[in-house]
């Protein structure tokens, strides 16, 4: 039986029989986050002092640098050779940081710091880019005003055709699935290859409304086929993901152009998807590491909606059901407001004044 006093001294790491080398070995198995926690525990303890040694950071640093550069590889089309070249995005950052031989922790902090500055700069650049886009008529109405609009009792139609478009993987199918079934799809991304239909019945101002919801294929291979679902649409919803700035840019360079060319003067709303990613620290970090970007902001979405002549702007996160509860209201009230002669008159007046 171990005497109480003896037991205490054996397990007191200050007076431990374990020497520094054994501690080092133990520490080398720990995750860097645990080392950081230990480092903060107490500066007096020898084991905590050991955690500050550069060798732990070296392994972590090298592993991270390798992972960052792997994660940032992308295929870029080479016009001259007619093949895809593997390029590392922001490679100058890695090459600069690979050469270090000491102060690994410090360099890792600097590297991430550079990305954050880069991400902030890119964000400001994107806002300037949106401001410079060709501006369609600004007919923007805030979502809150649409929600306050009361349905006109003279209007008899309660069947509405709504079409969702937007780049592939922005989450159109997931949004429609969640919207119509109240549950997020359990499968990973299955690219839509035919225009599927969903439907939803809802009650707005005591009127039963039927929403006929059309999914579409986001991939450019389907550009020719997609247009066949457009005729008779009451509302187009252009979707982009807040974590994919190419999908935001394509609102301007592809989707608005396509709809306005094939069906001018249609009612279009802009939907920003996957807003849960803005609050998810792991996903934010992944975006920072892979593309040195931050998710696009609400202000940028509203600005884009105004420049693109969209009627309103909505944000949703299908995965956590955020923004989904009043989406049917925005759709039904939005279509009715758009077709209201009093509203059209007001819109025309303000367009003349501009
Ligand atoms: N984090 C998050 N992921 C989502 C959300 N919505 C969809 N996703 C994921 O995004 C991926 C693409 O979703 P889809 O709904 O298939 O995208 P899509 O726009 O229909 O794509 P195409 O059919 O190829 O045009 C899937 O892996 C989904 O699980 C969301 O709200 N949050
Ligand atoms: Mg789909």
From TrEMBL:
Q: In the UniProt record, does the keyword Transcription occur?
A: no
Pfam families for this protein: Ras
Q: Which GO terms describe its biological process?
A: small GTPase-mediated signal transduction
The cross-references to SMART domains, in alphabetical order and at most eight, read: RAB (SM00175), RAS (SM00173), RHO (SM00174)
**Protein origin, superkingdom:** Eukaryota
The record's GO molecular-function terms, alphabetically, read: GTP binding; GTPase activity
Q: Which UniProt keywords apply?
A: GTP-binding, Nucleotide-binding
Question: F-box domain: which residues?
Answer: 12-60
The reply on keyword Cytoplasm is no
Q: Which PANTHER family match?
A: RHO FAMILY GTPASE
Q: What is this protein called?
A: Rho GTPase
> Which taxonomic lineage does the organism of this UniProt entry have?
Eukaryota, Discoba, Heterolobosea, Tetramitia, Eutetramitia
């Amino acid at each position: 039986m171990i005497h109480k006093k003896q037991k205490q001294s054996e397990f007191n790491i200050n007076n431990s029989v374990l020497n520094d080398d054994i501690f080092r070995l133990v520490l080398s198995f720990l995750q860097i986050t645990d080392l950081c926690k230990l480092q903060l525990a107490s500066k007096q303890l020898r084991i905590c002092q050991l955690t500050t040694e550069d060798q732990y950071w070296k392994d972590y640093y090298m592993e991270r640098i390798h992972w960052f550069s792997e994660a940032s590889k992308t295929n870029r089309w080479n016009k001259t050779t007619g093949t895809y070249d593997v390029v590392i995005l922001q490679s100058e950052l890695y090459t600069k940081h690979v050469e270090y031989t000491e102060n690994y922790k410090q360099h890792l902090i600097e590297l991430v710091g550079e990305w954050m500055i880069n991400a902030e700069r890119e964000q400001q650049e994107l806002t300037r880019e949106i401001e410079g886009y060709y501006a369609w008529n600004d007919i923007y109405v805030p979502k809150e005003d649409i929600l306050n609009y009361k349905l006109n009792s003279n209007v008899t139609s309660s069947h509405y055709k709504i079409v969702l478009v937007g780049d592939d993987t922005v989450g159109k199918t997931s949004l429609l699935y969640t919207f119509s079934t109240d549950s997020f799809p359990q499968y990973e991304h299955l690219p839509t290859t035919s225009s599927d239909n969903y439907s939803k019945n809802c009650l707005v101002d005591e009127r039963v409304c039927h929403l006929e919801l059309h999914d579409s294929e986001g991939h450019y291979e389907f550009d020719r086929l997609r247009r066949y679902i457009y005729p008779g649409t009451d509302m187009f919803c252009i979707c982009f993901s807040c974590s994919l700035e190419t999908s935001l840019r394509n609102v301007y360079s592809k989707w608005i152009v396509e709809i306005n060319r094939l069906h001018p003067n249609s009612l279009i709303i802009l939907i920003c998807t996957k807003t849960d990613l803005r609050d998810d620290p792991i996903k934010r970090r992944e975006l920072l590491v892979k593309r040195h970007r931050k998710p696009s902001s609400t202000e940028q979405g509203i600005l884009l909606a105004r420049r693109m002549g969209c009627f309103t702007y909505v944000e949703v996160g299908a995965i956590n059901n955020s923004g989904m509860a009043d989406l049917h209201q925005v759709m039904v009230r939005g279509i009715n407001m758009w077709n209201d002669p009093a509203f059209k008159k007001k819109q025309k007046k303000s367009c003349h004044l501009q």
